[in-house]
Model the fold of this input.
Amino acid sequence: MNNRDIQNKLRQAFDHAAPQTSGVTPPIARAAVVRDETPKAARPTLPRWALVSAAAVVVLFCVFVGAQLNRGSLGPTQVATNGASATATGEPSPVAQESASALAPEESTTPEPAPAEAPSAEKTGRLLLVGEWRRGNKLYLDRELALWQECYQQGMRDLFVELEYAFGGYLNLWMQSDSDDCFEQFWQDYVNRWGFDSFLLRDFYRAIKATCPETVFHAVDVGWYSNAGWRYIQLLEAQGKQDTPEYARARENLKQGRTYNGIRNNNERNQYWETCIAENVAEAFESLGGRDAMGIFDTAHINGDEKPFPEYETVLEYLLARYPDAIEVKEYPPVMDTVTIGDREYAAEYGGAFEPTSEKVLLYHVWRIEGDYETFKDAPLTGDSFYCYWLLFPVETGRVYVLRMDLADGSEEYVYYRTDGDERNGTPIAVEFIP
Done:
């Protein structure tokens, strides 16, 4: 079954699960419709002459009352609203006052609860944002964990993550459980969605539970129209939570994913994605009632210096416009180092480490040499290449990278790449060279 068939089945399931109202009488309306099922032949009737006589009496009475009103002989009282008697001056008569007192409910001594206040942008705490160039980068994961542990010690409990809503739900259930069942379900869905298993990310979440056990995850990405989202909705339905904000949010999150997948223009799709994340963050942030929070996002969403999508508003710009005094972006200085190529040392910036898909390699560590592209631009190539996305730095032509492979047997091996401006399938690639 291809992806289109799967999406069609998911759409059918979504439409089937949606509440159906067309052509169905609501329960209240059905209860209000009461028909007289007595056969006409069995119903009691009056003679026609009796009905005519009664009508004539009513007409004569109305004529008499009208004449007396014109003469003023009915005295100072008039008919008042709701059937209460009032004087000509508009004041209630003593009889009316007594009747109203008898019918009025006793005054309650219990104060009524104040109406719940709607979320407001004016009543928020502080939102600390931290960016990562690539999800699963060990350098960033270590930073994020240390920063969250620091914020947690200061009293913070709410952590925003760039995951779909269902993933956040599973993580929160896991945080409250002694079992790992919810985490394993979350992780299985995560791997199925993104196509790789990361022990670095596994360790990251497990470290949060071990050191910050009261963490509440707020997942603010679009729903991607995944099995995880439907499974989480079914879980809420089994718990009878169809009328809760959580259930409404879960369904709305899946609708966002369906809309995203249906947009064919790449720029329009990215703009919709960016807007959804920003609005999801705002909704969750305003629901905290003034509590401080921290958020972890891809740098593309919160990069204040270089906008990856200059044609539309980023998540950071949206939040700064809405909460100008509440948003803070955590900045980290570059990690400078030196690397040796041949018999010479070069100044380089360390970009972190990522997990490859190979079973023989545990980690790739990446350094970017500062300058010196001219030294290696004509070095012979090996014929190997990979996408620049894996280099853990913004894509730039004319750069040299050193990669250290930590092998499963405990040894290390170095390889060297440069960016000459080549592409594969429209995506920039780095080519391996022999120094």
